[in-house]
C-alpha cells in the first residue's frame, strides 16, 4: 500500500494542475476582499439610522417634559424620568457622534443607554422602543463586552473572523465536496484506462493495497486542502490583529427566539464536517469503482442516498443520524447548543465503521482486475444505414465525456435552483420573525406618537383647570383609543411569534395584516392606485375564489415598480413594507417560477456553448475524425447541417431529461404546486375588461395562470436555443478555431444582451432577438413596460428568434458546395 500511496502522491505533486488549487483559493479570497473592501459599511449605517431615530424621540420627550415643568410643574417621579431622559440623551449623543465618525466602539455606551431606558420605562409608561429587539441588542452587547469586542461590519467584514466564516461557507460547501469526488473519480478511471492497474498487478500488489492506495492519497489531499483553505481564510484577521473576533456573536433564530452564537463554532464545525463528508464520499466511491462501475453509475449511486437524506431532512426535520447536516442545516440544530461536538464524534465513528465495512469488499477478488483489452474498453462504432454523421458526432462527444459532464452540470444548475428555493423556504420562520419584529418596531413608534399626544391633551386639560378652574364638561381624550389600538396590535404580533412553526402560520400572519389594512384601494383616491396596491387586492380575490394559498409572507404582491423604488430610494418604510412580503414556496411549480425569474437559462445556454456544441472548426483541427470524413465524399453543407441538427437535438434532449428528473424530485420534496396560481402580468395599455390600470404607475396589468406562463417560457426557451445554435454554427463555419468560436459567440451574446437591456426604450428594439433572452420578464410583460412597446411579447419574441435563427442557418448554407477530400 505504501508504494501505491507514494506513487499516486508523487504523480499528483508533479502535475501542473496541482498549483491551480491554491491559486483558485487565493483568487477567491482576493476577489471577495476587494468586493468587501470597496463596499460601504452597512452595519454602521444601520446603527446610525437606529440611534438617530431614538435620539429624535428622546429630544422630543425632553422638550415635552421641560414644557410641562414650565406650565404646571413636575412631580418627583416625573423629575426622575426627566433626569433619566437627559442621561439617555447623553449616551445617544456619544453613540451617534462615534457612528458619524465611522467608529463602532459604542458597546459600553449602548449598554448604559439600555440600562437607563429600563429605568425610564419603570417611571413613565412610554416604551418608545421595541422591547424584544432591545433584549436582543442587550444580549449581543453583553457578549461583546465579555470578550472586549466592538461592533463590527457583519455584511462586509473584510478584516474580521466574520470574513473567515463567509469564506468557510464557500470553501467547505457541498459544491466543493462533490467537485473533489469528481476529480477523484476521473483520476481513478483515467489510471485504470491507461493500464496502471496492470502495472501494479505485475508488481505483486494486492487488491487492498491498490484501492486503499487511491483512497488514502486523496484523503491526505483533502486534509491538506482543509489546512490550506483554513490558513488562507484566517490570514486577514491574523494580519490585522482581529483574531479575537472569533468570539463575535451572530444572531440565530430558534423558533421565535433569537440566540447568540459565537463565530468560532462555524470555524470549528465547517472544516471538520466537510472533511468527514468528503471521506465518506471517497470510501463509497472506492467501493463502487472497484466493482467496475462507470463514472455515471458511480455518481448516480453516490448522489441517491444523499438526495434521499436531503429530502428526509426537509420533510421530517433534523435527525442526528443524517450525515447531510455536516454541510447543510446545521446552524439552528447544532451550533446554538454544544451538540455539534457529539454529532461530529458520532459521524467520525460512522466513518470508521464505513472504512471497516469496506475492507472485505475491497479485499475480495470478485470484479477485480478483469480489465479487457484496451480496444474493448470503448464500444466499437457500427453506424446504422441512416444518420451516420449524427451517430458519429454523438460518439465523439460521448467518448470525450462531454455528454456526461454536461448532464452533471445541468443537474447541478437546475437542481441547485431547487436546493436554493428549498433553503429559502426553510428560512421562512427567520424571515417571518424579522417581519414581525419590523412591524412591531413600526407599531411601537406609532404607540409612542399617540401616547405623547395623549399626554399633551391631558396637559392641556390640566393647564385649563389651573387657569379657568373646574371645567363644566369633562373632555374625553381622543388619543386614548389609538394608544389602545397600538397596544392591541403590538400584543397580537407578539402572540403571533409563537405560531411561526405552525402549518397555517402564513395564513394567520396574512389574516392579521389584512385586519390591520381592511380598507380597499377603491376607497382611496384613484391617483394613489399603484400596481402593488391594486394587484394585491385583486389577486387576493382570485386566490380566495380558487381556494389557493398565497405565496407572499405578507399580504401584498410587491410589483416591479416598487422594487425599483427600493433600489434607488433608501426609504426604511418602503424596505420594511417589501421585505415582509417575501415570496416563498417549495413546490415544483414554484421552483420553475424561480428558475425562470432568476434567468438561469442563460447559464444553461453557456454550458452548451462551452462544452457540448460542435462546429465546422472541430474538423479543421488535425484530429482522427478527419480520417473518417475523408473515406467518402461528404459535402461541407452536409457536415454543417449535421452539426447544426446534432447541437439542436442534444440541447433539447439533455435539457428535457435533466429538467424532468429534477421536477419529479421537487414534486417529492414540496408537491406539484398550484397550476392555476394567478401571476401578475404587465401591459402597456388596457386591451379588455380583465385589465386593470394604475394611474400612479401609468401601466396596465392582468393575471394569468402560472402553468400558462411556464408553457410560454418553454416556448421562448425553445426559440432561444434555436437562435443561439444557428449563431454558434455560423460563427463556427467562418472561424477556423473551435475555441475562438466559443469565445466569440459568448462575447456577441453578452454584448447583445447588455445593449438590448440598456437601450430597451429605443424605437424598433422589439426586432432585436437579444431582448428576448430575459425569459421571465418577457413572459410577465415587464420588458414591454421597460420598452414602452406592446410588441415586446412572447409571440413576437418566439417568431423573431426563430426567423433570425433560420436566417443565420441559411447564411451558413451559402457558399461553394465543396466536397471534403
Task: Characterize the structure shown.
Keywords: Membrane, Transmembrane, Transmembrane helix. One of its GO terms (cellular component) is plasma membrane. The chain has 821 residues and is mainly α. It has 34 helices and seven strands. The chain has four domains: 42-146, no CATH class; 157-369, no CATH class; 428-468 and 479-519 and 533-579, no CATH class; 588-820, no CATH class. The protein is globular, with a radius of gyration of 33 Å. Mean pLDDT is 80; it is low at 367-378 and 817-821.
Q: Proportion of β residues?
A: under 5%
Number of strands: 7
**For the report, how would you describe the main beta sheet?**
3 strands, antiparallel
The span between the termini is 53 Å
Shape: globular
**Mean pLDDT over the residues:** 80
Radius of gyration: 33 Å
Query: Considering DSSP H and I runs of 4 or more, what fraction of the residues is helical?
Result: 55-70%
How large is the count of helical segments?
34
Strand order of the largest sheet: 4-6-5
- Provide the structure class: mainly alpha
GO cellular component, one term: plasma membrane
GO molecular function, one term: ABC-type transporter activity
Keywords: Membrane, Transmembrane, Transmembrane helix
Transmembrane segments: 17-35, 167-189, 209-239, 246-264, 270-289, 296-320, 340-362, 403-421, 595-613, 644-669, 709-732, 739-761, 794-815
